[in-house]
Amino acid sequence: MRPFDPLCTTYSHNIRVLRLARNPGRLGTMPPALAHVSSRDFSAVIVCVGAGSRHEPRGQNGVAHLLEHAAFLGAGQRDYRAIRTAIDELGGDVSAETGEEVILYWGSANEPRDFPECLDLVADLVLAPVFDPDSLRREVGTVIQEISGAGDDVFQTVVEGAKSLLWPEGPLGLPVGGSPRVLRRLGADACRGYWRASHDPSRMLVLVVGTAAESKQARKRFGAEVLEAPRVPLPPQWERRGEGPYPPRSRFAAKPLAGNFARLAFGLPGISWSDPRLPALDLLNGVLGRDETSHLWERIRGEGLAYNTESYVDCFSDTGWIGVLTDAPVDRAGEVVGIVCEEVASLPERLTIDELERARASHIARIRNDELAAPLEWAKYQALHGYFLGRVPTVDGVVRELERVTFEDARQVAAELLQPERLVLCAGGPRRALRACETAFDKAGGVG
């Protein structure tokens, strides 16, 4: 799963902000939380469950991803065909996605009359998966094909490699999709056990986009309470905890791959969803590599060194990371590595007011322009925001946070987070490109 920049997708509806009161003493006994975003033009239900790969039992990496697939094989009174028939008839979007800390289930309805069926289907997927052993045994092969296909996407391969450098001893460093070796050992019992442990109502947030009547239906179907609280469970006991990624044993990893290009994934320790520095970091991301006028875009894409170049920010409940993805011709891979290292090291000093304002204007324009274009993606972001922080954001609220960032704020955050001595690199490609990458990274002070 590629890192997702949710602030790039939004939409204009009358959004009611719900402030959620945290009460840790009740966690584990609470019913699901419910948030309502008022809309007369779009209807959807999104459910966040604290069941991502970070919370898997030790030795069962991939069970969360397999559970996500298992739900669509049979849930409630529906078998596989009935589920697929319902999805086709709804004509909207009913699906799920596994991340490091959540499984996200969602469904959208094209017509108001379809919302009850959409809600019932999503609720069954979350609350009543069947886990038929024979069906699940066949699905394991499908999941292995999926992650093997992802392995052919060398960008995903190097992203997972960079994460394993940042978190070499914890579950955040493991692939979200799992590995074929482990998946072949998992079955209905493992999925059922993980579902029972992870799909506790206290770890659920249900977001309804639609009318008050639709929100009432969801509240009844899930037995949810409108009085909400952040729903993030603690990391597993076997994980070494801290404010950020662990000090890596090595900061460079090479993955030999055939082809005429190298794919590079750089990573830096980042920050959590709740860190007040996040708006400033989001603007710095625009200056570094997200925008088409960014430093990396102009020096790499603009000079014809790579077609794909981007930077991103990925947040978790108590940590996060800053990433750079780029490709490079085999004979110039070392040059691209040097450029990225140089830009990360120099941005805190080279940042100018003009380029910060340009990044701010670009990001706000993107939010405003996308208001009508991607309502489901923005609703997913709202659900995640509510799950991790206990409040559902408005478009105007996000814009106000970006507008409050000063130049001094951005310079300070850049100095705190863009520390080249903490940079890691996973490179994939032909061996001669990998040698050039390692040499260039070493020259920049990166190989530990």
TrEMBL record:
Domain called Peptidase M16 C-terminal: residue spans: 192-361
Pfam families listed in its UniProt record: Peptidase_M16 (PF00675), Peptidase_M16_C (PF05193)
Coiled coil: none
InterPro entries cross-referenced by the UniProt entry: Metalloenz_LuxS/M16, MPP/UQCRC_Complex, Pept_M16_N, Peptidase_M16_C
Domain Peptidase M16 N-terminal: 35-159
Domain of life: Bacteria
UniProt-recorded Gene Ontology molecular function terms: metal ion binding
Sequence similarity: Belongs to the peptidase M16 family.
Protein name: Mitochondrial processing peptidase-like protein
Lineage, uppermost ranks: Bacteria, environmental samples
Gene: pqqL
